[in-house]
């Protein structure tokens, strides 16, 4: 299987992987934001998604890690702006 190099396809993969975490984690995202332990709380899920991402993406793509990290913030955190947290 060839690894993804197209930035748009890489971006979509990252967003899908993080979206899956949001779906399966359920209330854990909200609780993690409220208690300010989101990344500790979901560490295992994030690591599994990141490992899958690294297997599928050509890591010589200069923005590969930035794309994954952006998806984490954009999908996992920013979509939960209604949650009461000291972050906003």
Structural overview:
With 88 residues, the chain is mostly helical. It has one domain (7-80). It contains five helices and no strands. It has helices spanning 7-25, 27-35, 38-41, 43-56, 64-77. Helix 1 (7-25) packs antiparallel against helix 4 and helix 1 runs parallel beside helix 5 (64-77). The longest helix is centred in the first third of the chain and has 19 residues, at 7-25. The chain is elongated, with a radius of gyration of 13 Å. It starts with 6 loop residues before the first helix and ends in an 11-residue tail after the last helix.
Number of domains: 1
In DSSP terms, counting alpha (H) and pi (I) runs of 4 or more, how many helices? 5
Query: What's the mean pLDDT score?
Result: 90
| Rg computed from alpha carbons, rounded to a whole number of angstroms | 13 Å
Strand content: under 5%
Which class best fits the helix and strand makeup? mainly alpha
Instruction: Kindly state the number of beta strands.
Output: 0
Q: Secondary-structure element sequence?
A: HHHHH
Our measurement of the CA-to-CA distance between the termini, rounded to an integer number of angstroms, reads 42 Å
Q: Based on CA inertia axes, which overall geometry fits?
A: elongated
What does the secondary structure layout of this molecule look like, with pairings?
Layout: H1 7-25, H2 27-35, H3 38-41, H4 43-56, H5 64-77
Which keywords apply here?
about 90 residues; mainly alpha
């Amino acid at each position: 299987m060839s690894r993804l190099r197209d930035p748009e396809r890489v971006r979509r993969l990252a967003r899908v992987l993080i979206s899956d975490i949001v779906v399966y984690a359920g209330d854990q995202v909200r609780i993690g934001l409220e208690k300010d332990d989101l990344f500790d709380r979901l560490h295992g899920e994030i690591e599994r998604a990141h490992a899958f991402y690294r297997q599928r993406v050509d890591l010589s793509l200069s923005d590969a890690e930035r794309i994954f990290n952006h998806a984490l913030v954009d999908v996992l955190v920013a979509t939960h702006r209604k949650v009461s947290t000291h972050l906003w």
